[in-house]
Design a protein that fits this description.
Among the domains are: 89 residues, no CATH class; 131 residues, no CATH class. The chain is built from 25 helices and no strands. With 520 residues, it is mainly α. The N and C termini lie far apart (101 Å).
Length: 520
């Protein structure tokens, strides 16, 4: 009963309603209830655990168990599946993929063709149906079904009209076989890229770069030779990923615009969810470029094409948070953060909820609510599981909040603890170069007793290094360092990012002049 129970409870209310009519409409006695529906209704009533076969047998037949209940169970399972492919169910608009019903209808047409092609309707209705399948398959680039249908058409028409027609069909079949192969390769390349992207470390990053360059070259050739929009769609996704990987965000944005054009102008690849995904990808590139207003426009366009209950919507909201936060629109960022925090743990998981708590702490810091920020970051965080990324940034932000509160006696041991954490972590995995520089900066600041009126030349050099652009240690969005450390320090010491000269003089220790041997 477990299998039948799972199937029935996967149905939505409308599908259950259709199932009831389907099971009772063929009753010879015009019954509103049949044994098959009675069994379905009883199983549907048991939401958590399926009823036993003995229980169902007693209900339907009044006996403990016999072969009849087994046969009824098997027939019901088949009938449930049959009910799912009738038009009223397959034509529904509640699929995430809005062209999915078209693909289902195409396959139903192909099945119907197989039924009638051996009847007297072979050269009339069957042939018309075949041409309809071919035209629709071409339009939506459904290559496997298209190739099968072209082959049947070649046999049926070529047998009647001769070799010239057969040769023409063979050329067309050859072209679409190339399209099908190119599409399958493009899809494989995309999912292989995702798999490689999940690895960490410099070796994997280099492996991903080489992979992308190699596959993009092949897919560019395939796209030029097939003009398949489906191949072009995956090609532009790969190009966008490649340019983001090598940090050429201008070219990544160009690829994103081309991706958007392919989606909008080709019904074969057009999906609202893909449109939303493309706009979000453009927004992500805008954030890397620091063009937050453009990012927010693209985020808004993406949101119009994304279901609010989907994972894509959460991604969209996180992008909106990043754009507003880095654009210094703290109130807007706070609204989005509150929305994300309203998500349940069952929807998001403990790690993501902890991430949103960290976002909230960053908002407190930006607003000058340092006490609330430090208090939140002192609590247990699920982010601590990520020893290299989130854990380090959580510690750094807490130290910054305590410095702002001038609770230096609490900040000092946390700097020492951060150093020990990085040393321990470095034995097991790579610690980011930027995090090492931040630690050195904090250690320099600690040596001065966190003195606001004193900043060593070594600390200045570290600040200027952290402020550089285009380096491996440069600040990047979409990292746990939401508040760039160098910007916070420079704002405190009124330093210029470009030259390192301070606008206001501060006290410095006089340089130590070492005595040279042999001098008086």
């Amino acid at each position: 009963m477990e299998k039948l129970h799972s199937l029935l409870h996967s149905l939505n209310p409308q599908q259950i309603k259709v199932l009831r009519k389907f099971l009772t409409s063929f009753s010879s006695r015009n019954e509103t209830h049949t044994k098959m529906w009675d069994l379905a209704a009883h199983i549907l009533a048991k939401k958590k655990t399926p009823p036993t076969i003995q229980e169902c047998s007693l209900l339907i037949y009044g006996v403990n168990r016999d072969s009849r209940i087994e046969k009824l169970k098997t027939r019901l399972y088949s009938k449930v599946l049959d009910s799912l492919i009738i038009d009223i169910n397959t034509n529904r608009r509640d699929y995430q993929d809005e062209v999915h019903p078209i693909f289902v209808r195409l396959k139903k047409r192909a099945t119907l063709f197989q039924i009638i092609r051996f009847t007297s309707l072979r050269d009339t209705v069957a042939l018309d149906m075949l041409q309809e399948i071919i035209q629709t398959s071409k339009k939506y680039e459904q290559y496997p079904l298209l190739l099968e249908s072209l082959t049947y058409s070649k046999w049926m028409i070529g047998w009647r009209e001769g070799n010239k027609v057969i040769n023409e069909y063979n050329k067309e079949i050859d072209h679409y076989e190339k399209c099908n192969k190119a599409f399958n390769n493009a899809t494989d390349n995309y999912y292989n890229m995702i798999s490689l992207s999940n690895f960490q470390g410099k070796a994997s990053a280099e492996k991903l770069r080489v992979f992308l360059e190699d596959r993009i070259a092949i897919m560019t050739y395939d796209y030029a030779n097939t003009q398949s929009a489906s191949v072009g769609y995956y090609l532009k996704l790969m190009e966008m990923a490649y340019f983001q990987h090598i940090k050429d965000y201008r070219k990544a944005k160009d690829a994103g615009r081309e991706l958007l054009s392919i989606i909008i102008n080709n019904v074969s690849v057009y999906r609202k969810v893909r449109l939303g995904f493309a706009y979000d990808n453009l927004a992500e590139t805008d954030i890397y470029l620091g063009d937050y207003n453009s990012a927010l426009q693209n985020i808004e366009l993406a949101a119009k094409n994304i279901e609010k209950v989907s994972r894509d919507y959460i991604v969209n909201r996180q992008l909106a948070f990043e754009a507003h936060f880095h654009n210094n629109e703290v109130a807007k960022a706070a609204e989005i953060c509150a929305e994300l925090l309203r998500s349940t743990r069952s929807q998001q998981g403990d790690f993501r909820i902890a991430k949103y708590r960290f976002f909230s702490a960053c908002i407190d810091f930006k607003r000058g609510n340092y006490k609330e920020c430090a208090s939140e970051l002192s609590k247990k965080f699920e982010l601590s599981r990520d020893k290299v990324g989130w854990e380090i940034s959580t510690r750094v932000l807490r130290i910054m909040a305590l410095i702002e509160l001038e609770r230096f006696d609490e900040a000092q041991p946390l700097v020492t603890s951060l150093q020990k954490h990085i040393e321990r972590t470095a034995r097991k995995s790579d610690v980011d170069e930027r995090d090492r520089l931040i630690l050195r900066l904090l250690r320099e600041f600690e040596k001065e007793g966190f003195n606001r009126d004193r900043l060593s030349s070594r600390a200045e050099d570290l600040l200027l290094q952290l402020a550089e652009v285009g380096k491996t240690y440069s600040w990047q969005p979409f990292t746990p360092e939401l508040i760039p450390v160098q910007e916070w320090f420079m704002s405190k010491y009124h330093m210029s990012k470009s030259c390192g000269e301070r606008k206001n003089k501060v006290n410095r220790k006089p340089p130590v002049i070492k005595k040279q041997k042999g001098n008086a």
